[in-house]
Amino acid sequence: MRLTGQRRLIAQVLSEAQDHPDVFELHRRVVAQCPHVALATIYRTVKRLEAEGILERREFRDGHARYEWASKKHHDHLIDLETGAVIEFRNAEIERLQEEIARQLGYRLVSHRLELYAVPIPVSPHSGGDVS
Question: Which of 72, 79, 89, 120 has minimal CB crowding within 10 Å?
Answer without folding.
Answer: 72
